[in-house]
C-alpha cells in the first residue's frame, strides 16, 4: 500500500467508517441490554481516538505511525472486543511494544506488511518468535566505536553506570533490550542524543538487568522499553547523582531542582533545608536567571500545585535581582491564586516601583471582594 502520513491517518479517525464502529457498539449493547445507559457519543468517539493513538509508539517514523493507526483502526472494525475497550476508555498498552519491535526489526518479520497481519494476537506471536533471531543478530555485531562513545561513571561488582555518546555505544550496551536507540540501522539515537543530554545506561551486575535514562525526554526505561516504577527510578536516579555525572551534566541538576520544587513538605526545619538545597543547585547553573523564571512559571500555574513556601522563597529579597520573577507572581496572581501575604511583601519591599504598584492594585481589588473569597496561605 502507499505510505500514509501520521496526520492523514489521524484524520481517518473522524471518518464515517470510524463513527460506524461506535454506532455499532451502541446498537449491540442496546440489543443485549435494553436498559443500557448510553454515554454521550462525543465522549465515546473521543475515547476511541485517544486510546487508539495511545497504542501507537512514539519511536516510529511518521509513515510507520500512520500505518499503525490504519492497522489499529482495521483491527477495531474486525474485533468488537478491542473496539469496546477503546470506546470505554480502557488503556491497551501491550500492542505498543509489539508494533515497535515489528517496525524496528522489520527485516526479521516473516510478514513485513503490517496491513496483512490479521489480528493483535498474530502480531504478538510473530514479534515474539522473531526475538531470538533479533538477539542473535545483535550479539554477532561488534560496534567498533562503542568504547569511544562510552563514558563510565561507575563500574564495580554491583553496578555499571555510563553515559552513551554515540550510536555504537547505544547498540552495544542495548543488546537484548527493546530500546529504539539500540536498533541497528535506525536513527532514533540521533533523535534523543545531545552532548549535554546523553543517554545514561545502568546494569545490575547481580541479575544483569539493564536500564536506560534520558532526562531531556523524561524517559526512564527498563530493558523491555517500559517505564520503570517509582521505587526503581528513585534508586537509580540517586545512584547516578552520587557519581561525577551529577556535577558534569547540568541537565541532571535541573531535573533534581524541579523535583525538589514539586515536593510538598509539612512545616518544619526540613523546609528550610530543602530551600537551601534548591538555592545551591540554582547557583551552579550557567543561566540561573532563566531557571528562576522557569521556576516561578511553574509556581504560578495551578496544575503544578507547587507548595506556597516555594512561591514565598521566589518572591523574597533573594530574587530581587531577577526583575521578572516578582512581576510574574503579580501578573498571574489569580492563576494560583497567590496568597495576599506574599503580594503584601512584594508591594512593600520589592525594589521595582512598577511591580510594587501592580501588587498594591491587586491587593486593593481583593479588599473589595466579598469575604468568602479567600487568598490565605495554602
Describe the overall structure.
The structure is a single chain. With 378 residues, the protein is an alpha+beta fold. It folds into three domains: 6-140, no CATH class; 150-248, no CATH class; 267-367. Helices cover 54% and strands 7% of the residues. It contains 18 helices and five strands. The chain has helices spanning 6-11, 16-32, 41-55, 62-78, 80-87, 94-104, 120-140, 167-173, 188-192, 230-241, 245-248, 250-262, 269-282, 288-299, 308-314, 323-331, 340-349, 353-367, and strands spanning 150-155, 159-164, 199-204, 210-214, 219-222. Strands 1-2-3-4-5 form a five-stranded antiparallel sheet, sandwiched between helices. A hairpin with a 3-residue loop joins β1 (150-155) and β2 (159-164). α4 (62-78) crosses α5 and α14 runs antiparallel to α15. The chain is flat and about 70 Å long. The protein starts with 5 loop residues before the first helix and ends in an 11-residue tail after the last helix.
